[in-house]
Design goal:
Helices cover about 85% and strands about 0% of the residues. It has about 180 residues and is an all-alpha fold.
């Protein structure tokens, strides 16, 4: 396994471990992670959402989408990612041309599969830096929003983040 993949698995494991410790005793203090995160987020994002739940929620979605988009732009090699996307688009066009030729189509599909590890490696660095804060933010959101929206907040977050991420990616020219 490549070093980058191993690092990604370690970061994801640590992220989920931290989220799993949310309600547990740590460092001799009950709910250490939860109280620490609440001490930071309740006076900021929590105050915004108390002022206006819907506007605050939309603002938080926009803010997290902006931070994630900026991390993708500045922590990944955009030139190389754009070049890979061009190559993938070219291969897709070639595959459409050779729909009736299974041998050539298989060859093009194999070439296309070679892009996945390279693309993953280029886009992994932003994930390493943002996964722990985002997972902690989601954990805080679940405590804050489940009593109000139930688990539907996740759906609204995903829809909102897709809209804002698309806008920010276009605006900031992120591959």
């Amino acid at each position: 396994m490549k070093k980058g993949m191993m690092l990604m698995f370690v970061v994801m494991f640590v992220s989920f471990w931290i989220a799993g410790q949310w309600d547990k005793e740590l460092f001799g203090q009950k709910e250490f992670i939860k109280t620490s995160i609440e001490a930071v987020l309740n006076p900021t994002l929590g105050a915004l959402m108390k002022w206006s739940l819907y506007i605050g929620f939309i603002f938080v979605i926009a803010l997290t989408s902006l931070v994630l988009t900026l991390s993708q732009k500045y922590l990944s090699d955009q030139v190389q990612l754009k070049e890979l996307k061009k190559e993938q688009k070219y291969l897709q066009e070639e595959m459409k041309k050779y729909k009736e030729h299974p041998e050539k189509l298989m060859e093009l599909q194999k070439k296309q599969l070679e892009f996945f590890p390279r693309t993953f490696e280029l886009t992994m660095k932003p994930l390493i830096y943002t996964s722990i804060p985002i997972i902690l933010l989601f954990r805080w959101f679940s405590d804050y929003l489940i009593p109000i929206f139930g688990n539907w907040w996740i759906l609204w977050y995903l829809i909102g983040s897709m809209v804002f991420s698309g806008l920010f990616r276009k605006w900031l020219d992120v591959a």
